[in-house]
Amino acid sequence: MTFQADRPYNDLPPLPPKEDVETKSVLKACIAARAALAELRISGQHIPNQAVLINSIPLLEAQASSEIENIVTTTDRLFRFANEAGNLADAATKEALRYRTALNQGFRTLQERPVTTSTAVAVCRTIKGVELDIRSTPGTALVNQATGAVVYTPPEGQNLLRDKLANWERYIHEAEDIDPLIRLAVMHYQFEAIHPFIDGNGRTGRVLNLLYLVDKGLLDIPVLYLSRYIIRNKGAYYDRLLAVTTEGAWESWILYMLAAVTETAGWSTARIRAIRDLLDQTAERLRRDLPKIYSRELAEIIFVNPYCRIGDLVSSGIAKRQAASVYLKTLVDNGLLQEVKAGRENLYINPALLALLTEREPAQGGR
């Protein structure tokens, strides 16, 4: 059956694609993307306390990936509620924080097993905050938000979906003659086309992208801000996904994803270097101007937690509660932190770090 937008695409072709996915242009772009990822990986290794990175860039990724699905929150709210259960956060912030949780939990499970269908189910459950499984009921359709027209109807039938996911899983781990970055683009399209869940497929697929890069050894930790490119080129993201379905246009889709990897790896590398420099400058300023309270751990904790609490210093073993309060107020008095009231407690904000993390260019149209 040929593709019809308003009918379940049960004949979604299995992987590998029949079309050539290793064109000259793709291979050239793949070399650039791999080089950018290698530089990012090395840059991350230069920050000994990896929590500094894990607590920052994945939150930006969570915000952008959620925004792609029109779930909009702010960086300020995400960092403010990042270390809480989120009970005081608005619904969009809670959902974006669950994305960050899904990414971190998935990262930890990679020590036990590679990316699988079970990984996808666990990720989607965490993102949505409910127990769900592979779709079993019909009626799912993707529509153009501007016109209301159906643009894609994914396959239906739980057994069929599980078969297609099993094929997807075999491809990403067994097609070793294909570069992992090309497989990344192919696997992301196929997962979105299978659309295995009632909701949360896009965000789940984007978490799986980062986990796959770690799984294949291209990253040590999931600190690629990949959704930054997608949100800035959102129209092209959906257009090129659909063009694979309607035209078999694999090359343009793969080139889009490789460009996303290359650009965001460069951005992430630059930010990591800037974070490292700012951390070193902060530690030196503490050592020079505040020797009585200086420790490298104190400098690092206000980078691990850009919205720092007295309890963060206590739980890290830096100081007991009374001393921790004195330390943070001293940092405020010396212009390193800003103090704000949040309910019954005070938050101590690292404004220089937040300014560095939230620099963002205006969105661009599709290419």
CATH topology of the largest domain: Fic-like fold
Can you count the beta strands? 5
Rg: 22 Å
Q: Which range best describes the helical content: under 10%, 10-25%, 25-40%, 40-55%, 55-70% or over 70%?
A: 55-70%
Q: Mind describing the biggest β-sheet?
A: 3 strands, antiparallel
Mean pLDDT: 93
Class of secondary structure makeup: mainly alpha
**Major beta sheet, strand line-up:** 3-5-4
The sequence of SSEs as H and E is: HHHHHHEEHHHHHHHEHHEEH
CATH architecture type of the largest domain: Orthogonal Bundle
CATH homologous superfamily label of the largest domain = Fido-like domain
Total helical elements: 16
What is the strand content?
under 5%
InterPro entries: Fic/DOC_N, Fido, Fido-like_dom_sf, Fido_containing, SoFic-like, SoFic-like_C
GO molecular function: ATP binding
Keywords: ATP-binding, Nucleotide-binding, Plasmid
Protein name: Fic family protein
